[in-house]
């Protein structure tokens, strides 16, 4: 059977045959930084090596893997690691079958990925206990897994299986610890470059063409200055964990605006994402001044709101069967009419 190939940034990859697994559709805006990150990852993808992606939150570590695998028709399993992770969470365990009333073995996600030749993403691998990670040294080294928790058989990974781990940098992420050298040595470490401001604007314009350019530039300007303030501890200095404002926050704002026909709500969306998370009233006051300055610079003063005069409207929409509370709503469609004491209610 002839093999099909695709080319991404001059790297040739085999396109896999469909095995019935769901492959999420993933697209990226191919900015210069995106292409640079692809060129750093693809050599290890091509050689099927273990990869450790290191980068700030919101730099698209998972998205770039989904993008590559979408183009080459390769399924991906993703598991979020944490300090409570146990080996059986990934390997599998015996579970009680309610039908047969007996204990049956159920493969964990890593075991399934190895048997089916699927990419396995260990998201935030450095959060897991190092003793738990040592249990998987045979996977790191030889792509083999002995089911000590099961029947003792040895699973040899099928063609296509690849282990990709991610982690945020230790700096700026409280409670994070670096992946121990004894584990990291089994991985090709790739640092994911963050997007510069002009590329963030380019990405958002491509994703949300309905949003006016001046609004995109306004929100990005606010986010960039706010992130710098956080780094310099001008705001949030009294809180234990550092705040992070990145492209994820920007997408949340614009996704809400796309679904909101009232442009007057722009201020409230910005307020909810950039101001409300801060607990200190002094920090909130500083941020409101920052937002006011950027609205003024862009000539959008008419869209600002006075917090003192904020009011929340409540209305019942019988046609749509929902209760509108401000910019939010509660659907009543799931509520069925019941007959009580002979009366329909």
SSE blueprint and pairings:
Blueprint: E1 4-8, E2 11-15, H1 32-46, E3 51-54, H2 61-71, E4 76-80, H3 87-91, E5 92-96, E6 103-107, H4 109-116, E7 119-123, H5 130-134, H6 137-142, E8 144-146, E9 154-156, E10 162-167, H7 181-184, E11 188-191, H8 197-207, H9 213-231, H10 247-258, H11 266-275, H12 281-297, E12 314-317, E13 322-325, E14 328-331, E15 339-340, E16 343-344
Parallel strand pairs: 3-10, 3-11, 4-7, 7-10
Antiparallel strand pairs: 1-2, 5-6, 8-9, 12-13, 13-14, 15-16
Structure, briefly:
The protein is 36% helix and 19% strand. It is α/β, with parallel strands linked by helices and 345 residues long.
Task: Note the main attributes of this structure.
345 residues, alpha/beta, Rossmann fold, five-stranded parallel β-sheet, three-stranded antiparallel β-sheet, disordered C terminus
What does this structure look like?
With 345 residues, the chain is of the alpha/beta class. It folds into three domains: 4-191, P-loop containing nucleotide triphosphate hydrolases (Rossmann fold), CATH 3.40.50; 197-307; 311-344, no CATH class. Helix content is 36%, strand content 19%. It has twelve helices and 16 strands. It has helices at residues 32-46, 61-71, 87-91, 109-116, 130-134, 137-142, 181-184, 197-207, 213-231, 247-258, 266-275, 281-297; strands at 4-8, 11-15, 51-54, 76-80, 92-96, 103-107, 119-123, 144-146, 154-156, 162-167, 188-191, 314-317, 322-325, 328-331, 339-340, 343-344. The strands form six sheets. A five-stranded parallel β-sheet has the order 4-7-10-3-11, sandwiched between helices. Strands 12-13-14 form a three-stranded antiparallel β-sheet, with no helix packed on it. Strands 1-2 form a two-stranded antiparallel ribbon.
């Amino acid at each position: 059977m002839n093999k099909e190939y695709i080319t991404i940034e001059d790297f040739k990859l085999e396109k896999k045959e469909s095995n019935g697994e769901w492959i999420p559709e993933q697209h990226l805006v191919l900015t210069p930084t995106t292409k640079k990150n692809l060129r750093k990852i693809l050599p290890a993808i091509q050689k099927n090596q273990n990869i450790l992606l290191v980068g700030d939150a919101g730099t698209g570590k998972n998205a770039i893997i989904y993008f590559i695998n979408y183009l080459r028709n390769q399924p991906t399993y993703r598991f979020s690691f944490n300090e409570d992770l146990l080996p059986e969470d990934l390997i599998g365990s015996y579970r009680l079958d309610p039908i047969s009333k007996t204990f049956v073995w159920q493969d964990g996600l890593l075991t399934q990925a190895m048997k089916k030749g699927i990419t396995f993403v260990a998201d935030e691998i450095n959060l897991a206990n190092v003793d738990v990670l040592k249990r998987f040294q045979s996977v790191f080294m030889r792509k083999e897994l002995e089911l000590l928790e099961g029947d003792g058989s040895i699973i040899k990974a099928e063609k296509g299986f690849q282990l990709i781990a991610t982690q945020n940098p230790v700096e700026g992420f409280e409670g994070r610890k670096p992946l121990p050298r004894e584990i990291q040595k089994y991985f090709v470490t790739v640092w994911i470059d963050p997007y510069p401001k002009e590329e963030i604007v380019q990405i958002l314009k491509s994703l949300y063409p309905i949003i006016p350019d001046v609004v995109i530039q306004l929100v990005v300007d606010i986010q960039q200055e706010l992130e710098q303030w956080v780094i310099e501890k001008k705001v949030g200095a009294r809180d234990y964990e550092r705040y992070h404002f990145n492209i994820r926050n920007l997408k949340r704002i614009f996704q809400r605006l796309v679904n909101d026909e009232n442009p007057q709500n722009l201020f409230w969306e910005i307020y909810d994402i950039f101001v409300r998370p801060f607990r200190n009233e002094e920090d909130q006051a500083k941020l409101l001044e920052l937002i006011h300055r950027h609205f003024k610079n862009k000539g959008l003063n008419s869209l600002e709101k006075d917090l003192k005069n904020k009011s929340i409207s409540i209305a019942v929409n019988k046609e749509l069967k929902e209760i509108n509370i401000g910019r939010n709503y509660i659907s009543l469609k799931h509520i069925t009419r019941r007959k009580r004491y002979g009366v329909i209610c």
